[in-house]
């Protein structure tokens, strides 16, 4: 590998705007936004077109240069951070940020990989359509990264993950050829569905350069509620009740713990909306594109029935947009209170919805036994079976000492997840963070098929080495 | 390959109920239900469990015996019919027909591959849930076949193809190992989503033995309408209007041509529901699980607006279940009239929804020019962009002579499909039927990736040889 010759060729191909080696410009791309991972690179490439991206990847094949695809660099598992070799090329997609087409008859949008998620949401809204992918980082994450990690977020319950929103992809393969699977068809059974390979592969099989995505009718009405649960178990019948009553238009069904609300109040002075303080509350949102459906009434009625059935102990409907914002602000407050409380050890897990109460009870008890001073903060997308099961350091304790417990705590939590046939990464991916645990917990047959796919598409192992597998 | 030794070993493994070589018992498995394809086999295996299936496939690997997976044998592309070599083993899944689990909290069902589709629909209904996959063959097709072909049907518009309904799969790989990806998780980003490989692969990459599938809230109300279109173009704004008005709970949006209704009337004496006879009509169905949503009112209002906007020229709502059945009977009458009219050359195509009018106009004109006596019968799932674009033989003409035109007519139709970036197989798959056209029209890069996947998973090419690729 002749790095200097590669750098020269890449500069000649992409020009000074498209190929960067200055240390200051590289620096922000060499670490993740939580600053947990740090790497080195032989350059940062910013292709401006699919042709440029393809020519660049051909060049990396020719010079045998490893490639780390990078989007908005907002991932939580270190998938977009290069290793320490210094021989890797980072390919950031931010210059490919055009919306190529928007079709309201077909309800599709074709976007380049570097489009910011919010830009796509806004383009859809401007056409009186809705693009459902929504997550905290939406102001800076890129759709290419969302697809490479099969991002989830707050609307998965109704609309599914990024995968479910994708009709087609354009991908530069490791040999530099372009796979044009950028179809906008809603149905196509002509052979293997190749786009599926690259969604969620975290850049290990190719570089996503564009995508065609589904749009949905824009909402005409939205209803938001807050409800105190009689017990964690009661979340399950409430979910089924509300899914049916809202015509399966429940968009969010978020579980929040009393401890989390207390933290939000303590750190950000956020008011508790209910008069009582149950152990668990639900933040619920339903939305409809039909002007003929009174979704607020439907939600309120169903919550009334849940109250009568002793599933919830109290509840309120947001009566204004400000009230709605305040309810969502509480959830955000829980997320943002975590760093204020010191170090935390986070788990992004999923179990079958029915197993949530048992998992939480069992894993909590085991943690209380083995790590009695760690503080459990468990919240999340309970409608998807997905919990953020986080441990905060003991009050006033030493952050570094607490983080030293991470391998043992991870192991304990993930073993309980595995016992319930759950997932150790519901939406954040594997990256570098969960590579060891994946090897430990995934079946050897599944790992074998993954390795066979990797060898078939990237025989030299140049794409995002050290990630996932 | 020692066929006699393999037969003896298979018989010893599966017993006389599980391994059959008698010609009479084999016969129905050697041809497709349309009797277009005919093959030979060295035996019919009927494994009764995943363990048996895995041991059997290990045996086929050991003796180098090719395998044709077969479900209800209702496919339309010849994917389940063996070749003429006589060395192939047919593995039919009908003895693996248990429903392993049904979870109303998680809204999932785990079924074995040999379950009849209708059996799954009924199990869901008995638990007050809805399983959306629905197609003409539902009384005899098996879910394993539905998944292997990524089946579509009449509810795709709201619920997606078989792929969209699948959370997990259990698959016996060509080497006989069992891939247990039978998760019921709604979210799981732990590595490549391996189930996607086998859905729609038509048995060329492995044998599906079980699946976990999504359930939905049962319907509380349904509304069905029939509307005469002002023009084919008008179907597009009507679709957008109704999707929004019904809260995106439009289940079916079927286009029917005047010629088709005439055929249904002529052959089955089915009454035309509208007083006028527009060139195109829509059969529309919306359904909701919410008792609080008057979906019939919403649909009727939206159709009223479509009438005022001159998008439709007449319409009616089904006022009873009998009327609803009669409307759907008309669609069925169109399908069933085809064989009564002699030979037909069928195309199962998709284009972007917006391109439907242009595609129909252009392809019709080209057909009228080159094949002026062929009678076009075009109907289908217009909400998915999916048309059954069929040519019926000239009245009183010679069926065989007409069928001789199939290659030229296929080519003409598929070229028009390709010009609109469409699909030559929207829901029926490739099988043997479209293998040549796939090679002609799919991009060399995509075909290359497909071949790489095939080589990675089935290096000896033993699984469903001669199909798809």
Automatic annotation (TrEMBL), chains A, B:
Ranges of residues in domain FAD-binding PCMH-type: 37-218
Pfam short name (any one): FAD_binding_4
UniProt entry keywords in alphabetical sequence: FAD, Flavoprotein
Signal sequence range: none
InterPro entries, per database record: FAD-bd_oxidored_4_C (IPR004113), FAD-bd_PCMH (IPR016166), FAD-bd_PCMH-like_sf (IPR036318), FAD-bd_PCMH_sub2 (IPR016169), FAD-linked_Oxase-like_C (IPR016164), FAD-oxidored/transferase_4 (IPR051264), Oxid_FAD_bind_N (IPR006094), Vanillyl_alc_oxidase_C-sub2 (IPR016171)
Stated family: Belongs to the FAD-binding oxidoreductase/transferase type 4 family.
Name of the protein in question: FAD-binding oxidoreductase
Source organism: Dongia rigui
């Amino acid at each position: 590998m002749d790095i200097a010759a590669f750098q020269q060729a890449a500069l000649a191909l992409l020009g000074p705007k498209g190929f960067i080696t200055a240390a200051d410009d590289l620096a922000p791309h060499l670490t993740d936004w939580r600053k947990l991972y740090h790497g080195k690179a032989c350059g940062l490439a910013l292709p401006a077109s699919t042709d440029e991206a393809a020519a660049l990847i051909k060049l990396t094949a020719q010079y045998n240069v490893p490639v780390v695809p990078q989007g908005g660099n907002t991932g939580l598992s270190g998938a977009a951070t290069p290793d320490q070799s210094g021989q890797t090329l980072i390919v950031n997609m931010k210059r490919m940020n055009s919306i190529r087409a928007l079709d309201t008859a077909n309800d599709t949008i074709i976007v380049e990989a570097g489009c910011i998620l919010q830009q796509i949401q806004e383009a859809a809204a401007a056409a009186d359509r809705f693009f459902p992918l929504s997550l905290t980082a939406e102001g800076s994450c890129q759709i290419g990264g969302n697809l490479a990690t099969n991002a989830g977020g707050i609307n998965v319950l109704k609309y599914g993950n990024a995968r479910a929103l994708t009709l087609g992809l354009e991908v530069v393969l490791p040999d530099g050829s372009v796979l044009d699977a950028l179809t906008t068809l809603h149905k196509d059974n002509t052979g293997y569905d190749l786009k599926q390979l690259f969604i969620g592969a975290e850049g290990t099989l190719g570089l996503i350069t564009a995508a065609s995505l589904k749009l949905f009718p824009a909402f005409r009405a939205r209803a938001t509620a807050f409800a105190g649960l009689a017990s964690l178990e009661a979340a399950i019948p409430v979910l089924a009740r509300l899914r049916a009553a809202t015509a399966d238009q429940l968009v969010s069904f978020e579980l929040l713990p009393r401890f989390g609300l207390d933290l939000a109040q303590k750190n950000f002075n956020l008011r508790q909306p209910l008069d009582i303080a149950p152990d668990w509350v639900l933040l619920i949102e339903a939305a409809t594109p039909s002007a003929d459906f009174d979704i607020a009434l439907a939600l309120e009625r169903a919550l009334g029935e849940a109250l009568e059935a002793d599933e919830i102990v109290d509840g309120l409907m947001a009566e204004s947009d400000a009230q709605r914002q305040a309810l969502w602000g509480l959830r955000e407050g829980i997320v943002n209170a975590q760093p204020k409380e010191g170090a935390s050890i986070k788990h992004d897990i999923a179990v079958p919805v029915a197993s949530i109460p048992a998992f939480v009870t069992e894993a909590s008890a085991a943690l209380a036994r083995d790590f009695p001073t760690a503080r459990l903060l468990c919240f999340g997308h309970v409608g998807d079976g997905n919990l953020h099961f986080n441990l905060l350091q003991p009050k006033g304790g030493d952050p570094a000492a607490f983080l030293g417990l991470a391998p043992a705590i991870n192991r304990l939590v993930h073993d309980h997840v595995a016992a319930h046939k759950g997932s150790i990464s519901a939406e954040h991916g594997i990256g570098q963070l969960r590579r060891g645990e994946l090897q430990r917990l995934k079946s050897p047959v599944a790992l074998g098929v993954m390795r066979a796919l990797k060898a078939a598409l990237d025989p030299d192992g140049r794409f995002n080495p050290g990630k996932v597998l």
